[in-house]
Write the structure tokens for this entry.
Amino acid sequence: MKFLFLSLFLLNAYADLPNWVSDSKKGCKKSELCAVGEGESSSGAARNARVALSKIFENQVSSKFSSNLSSSNGKVDDSASEQIEEITETALEGVQITKTAESKTSYFALASINKMKAASGFEREIKKLDEKMEILYEEKDPSLAVKIEQLFLQREVLNKRFAFLTGREVQSKIDFSKVFKNKREAMANIILHVYLDEEEPKYVEAAVAQELSSAGYKVTTGRVRNKSSTNIITGEVTSEKMHMNVEGFEKFKFTLKLTSSDLKNVQKGRLTFDTEETGRSYDQAVQKAVEKIKEYIKTNIKELTI
């Protein structure tokens, strides 16, 4: 009896609502992408509708990207995967709330975006990336393969977004398989030797070496340079204890400076990064710093111009 009463109550509550509440397509133009959100207030419903629309787009693009894009060894590297995730999780620009409704218990909102308007923005960014890649590709320098690859990965994410909205892709003049082939050829002849002026245990040196290795490079470490190395990554890690009013915790500022050079000691690139971390001990604080340094290296490795 209670179940019957509840069913009748819900049926009555939704009876007068427009049909787009249960099926977003019924309130959506063919030229739009739409989603419905429900909330305890009109603003809450609008916010949830935008989130729902972003998730539809995100899931579709992520799925298509994963099924169509892979490197020559069958997977995208960790750094690129994280960048892809960040891009696909970004809410769509230009989303508007086009319809609203309310029942006795909830508020509803329909979020929509014009497919062609959104697609044109992606196409502009794709063409910008194409111009950059074509310039690098024409230089015929194998060491630039890593830069081209990162640009191509960004392009593919935007291209899948564009295809989801339009049903077609923006064709590229560069063959993706050639990009990875060039990368393999370039990395096959590169051995990086990493040495940082850092107190033992060398947490940061190990982290830098790990990220370079994850990017596909052969890496050696230590004070004495490996004779087979072709490039050298050197630098220093400094820490400065800072004032902290909270009892039982310590605060430190960590600074990392990296320089890449060839065997003739000609500088190719450099990176500088600093972060302030707190912990109950120095070790706890430095471990937090290491994680941020790893993220920084992943994002900015191309600046080393290896």
Summary: Residues 15-115 form one domain. The first helix runs from residue 2 to 15. Residues 72 and 181 are 8 Å apart (CA to CA). Residues 4-9, 67-75 have pLDDT under 50 and may be disordered.
